[in-house]
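(Protein data)
===
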Amino acid sequence: MSNALMDKPQVDDVPPPSTPLAHRRMPNWSPLAIAVVSIALGIGVGSVAGWESRVQWGLIAALFFVVGTYALTTAVEGSRQAKDRVATSVVWVCFVLAVVPLVSLGWTTISRGSKLLDGYFLTHSMGGMTNLEEGGGLYHALLGTLEQVGLATVIAAPLGLLTAIYLVEYGRGRLAQAVTFFVDVMTGIPSIVAGLFVLAFWNLGLGFGPSGFAGAMALAILMMPIVVRSTEEMLKLVPNELREASLALGVPKWRTILKVVLPTAIGGITTGVMLAIARIAGETAPVMLLVFGNPLINPNPFSGAQESLPLYVWNQYKLGNTASIDRAWAGALTLIAFVMILNLVARGIARWKAPKTSGR
């Protein structure tokens, strides 16, 4: 028996594996180095070819980045790892291609719009001006946008919220299917169609004149399906165990929805409403048809023509002179700031109303 144990090969006698477990790997800074070299090559090729567009330089640099990543990774790490790095490189290239236009638009708007954006510009209207001279402001447009978007929110948010509650909590049968179908249809309608509908019904049918309220109704039509869809998805994320626990305690269903379901989903619902507001804040077509525009301050949205920020930007840019184009860029910057403030407010409300957990 001892001879058999002695004849058995020991662990130290086992030869090492022929295939090493550790492979060569490229250093962590290699993607950055490849990107810098690719940008230099893209600029060089674009300059030699006589291309003046920086977009063409960027596309050539992106192509060099992907090809260079694949070639170097194949030589160092093998073809399998090269495919993984190429997929990562393509994702980064797509991300940069999506961010660059956004950054360029934001930089252009800020640099050109900040020339006039001051206290005077925000507190004065275009009343008594010829639109060809310098001066004036957008107070009348800002006031009109706040009133029109506010009225649209008052109309669309409750209707959209109640519709979503019906679809998630009560909706069964053909009526729910019909409501879902029409919500999907309304999501894709152009804004001009909503404006034409209100124009035919409110202005031509009932005989009312242009007003901010007419524009608000068209904006509410555009806002409502977004509120319904976002609220519906948020309500579906609420665990059914919370509903069952509340119902098991004898709480009525309507009170369960009011006290359990809605507080749990209030963060997502608020975010969806604010996204819908941001969606309609830049609409121009319904405002052109129903509000008409007004260089004077009209604080009454139910009577007379009003102005709005998108219509103000369009009217000023359409004039084509230097002063009006500067006012148009300042109006565009104000509109972007308005939407950003709405998003910040939405995040604040969502954090404030979010259900408290034991970890907080």
User: Anything to note?
Assistant: The chain has two domains: 25-113, 139-353.
